[in-house]
Design a protein that fits this description.
Blueprint lengths: L15 E2 H25 L6 H21 L5 E2 L1 H21 L12 H10 L2 H20 L16 H50 L1 H30 L6 H23 L3 H6 L1 E3 H9 L8 E6 L8 E3 L2 H17 L3 E8 L3 E8 L32 H12 L3 E6 L7 E8 H4 L8
Parallel strand pairs: 4-6
Antiparallel strand pairs: 1-2, 3-5, 6-7, 7-9, 8-9
Helix pairs in contact: 1-2, 2-3, 3-4, 3-5, 4-5, 4-6, 5-6, 6-12, 7-8, 10-11, 11-12
Length: 436
């Protein structure tokens, strides 16, 4: 579906906070130190303790340098974060070289830097880091010191087991990185779309609050204007017969009276106007959302269906108006000739259906409609591709008003799209503001 015109396009830049990386590295340092001590002192296995602790100390020194050099809230540029993760992968590869290579049970930890990169760095940098990890995993699977084992006993690991471990590490790295990247990307898209939703709602709510601001301004201006009117009347009584001032004084008094009438009308916007503007019958609501889209060469056919009971009258809600307007605009954009709007109600449900005679929804997309950044109905359409952010906002706003939405093709695929919106009647009739 098309992205709503005017919808703010927000894309947050994915970045990694330095403090997060420092804490993860401290955790790795503690774990590595404990593993070396347990193997050497607890199990009594021969182990190059000095070189192992030299690598661990290098990682600790880097952590201390970063801690004192930068504030904890410092955000790392993507390339700097990549360098630090490459250093972490290299340090871990060095430890594996000293302790049995890929046959070391802790070799699976090689995937950790890649997972961190997948959730916080651009895809290109993650691919670079993943390739580096795969290469060093292959190197330490061939070149490494013996796996620590009981003194005097030579542990021979079959070649097929080494190859299997290498394949397991590589496949786990790739699968986990792809999965983490997709989850993080969807989370970022959802956060961006929700931010755009809040901006749209804020704009609509500011417009809805203008009547209250006008009433407040009228109240504040009432007293000084009454003083001006009183003075103008006194001046008219005193100077009214003087030909030099008569016309000016009369004009001053008439204009002050006119200002008072304007302020009276402004004051009534929030009270008297609320009775007929603040609430809308369903038919008037539909006419209001359809009116802006009538002059685009597409016929908008509006007809009520079978109804039962009095017509529902709902509160004017900016979110509902925006959401329904977006659905109608999308239908007009994709229709060939006609958009049909049908509505009905009974004692329990209020239903609205929007149909167009356009190409319809692709089968592979129809189950994901309403997610942010889902492409248009038909790839390669002349009007270009959309991110689906406008539809996501519309769906979110309508669902928060109590509605449920159903997206389908009218009849067979390619013969038009159909969107059905349903409200429980008591939610549609609610006089309370929808909290967003």
């Amino acid at each position: 579906m098309k992205e709503e015109l005017g919808t703010p396009h927000i894309r947050s830049h994915r970045s990694l906070r330095l403090n997060t990386l420092i804490r993860l590295r401290w955790l790795a340092i503690v774990g590595q130190s404990a593993a070396v001590l347990v193997v050497f002192f607890g199990l009594g296995f021969p182990l190059p303790v000095g070189p192992c602790f030299a690598l661990i100390a290098a990682s600790a020194w880097l952590n201390l340098y970063l801690t004192f050099r930068y504030p904890s809230v410092h955000l790392l540029p993507p390339k700097t974060a990549l360098v630090l993760l490459l250093l972490d992968a290299s340090q871990l590869a060095g430890l594996l070289y000293l302790t049995g290579g890929i046959t070391n049970p802790f070799a699976v930890l090689m995937i950790v830097p890649v997972v961190i990169s997948a959730t916080s760095l651009p895809l290109r940098l993650t691919v670079i880091l993943g390739g580096f990890v795969v290469i060093v995993a292959g190197i330490v699977s061939v070149f490494h010191l013996p796996l620590p084992w009981r003194p005097g006993v030579e542990l021979v690991v079959p070649t097929v087991h080494v190859v299997g471990m290498l394949i397991a590490v590589v496949s786990t790295t790739v699968f986990t990185a792809v999965y983490a990247y997709r989850v993080a990307e969807e989370a970022h898209q959802l956060a961006d779309a929700l931010s755009a939703t809040e901006l749209v709602l804020q704009r609509e709510q500011h417009l809805s609050a203008l009547d209250g601001l006008a009433a407040a301004a009228a109240h504040e201006l009432g007293t000084p204007l009454a003083t001006i009117t009183l003075v103008a009347r006194e001046m008219e009584k005193t100077l009214g017969e003087d030909p030099r001032f008569r016309e000016d004084v009369t004009l001053l008094r008439s204009q002050s009276e006119r200002c008072r009438e304007i302020l009276k009308r402004l004051t009534s916007l929030s009270s008297e106007g609320e009775l007929h503007i603040g609430r809308l019958p369903l038919t008037s609501l539909i006419e209001e959302i359809a009116a802006p889209h009538r002059n685009f060469g597409i016929t908008i056919d509006m007809q009520p269906e079978v109804t039962d009971g009095p017509e529902p009258v709902g509160r004017r809600n900016p979110g509902v108006l925006y959401g329904l307007g977006n659905l109608v605009e999308n239908a007009v954009d994709f229709a060939r000739n006609t958009v049909a709007i049908r509505w009905s109600w009974d004692h329990s449900t209020v239903r609205l259906t929007i149909l167009d005679d356009g190409p319809g929804f692709p089968v592979e997309v129809i189950d994901r409609i309403g997610e942010p950044y889902v492409s248009r109905r038909k790839a390669g359409a002349s009007s270009g591709g959309g991110l689906g952010l406008g539809l996501f906002i519309a769906k979110t706003l309508l669902e928060r008003s109590g509605a449920t939405l159903d997206f389908a093709n009218a009849g067979e695929a390619g013969k038009g799209a159909k969107v059905t919106i349903r409200w429980p009647r008591e939610r549609f009739l609610s006089t309370e503001d929808i909290q967003v």
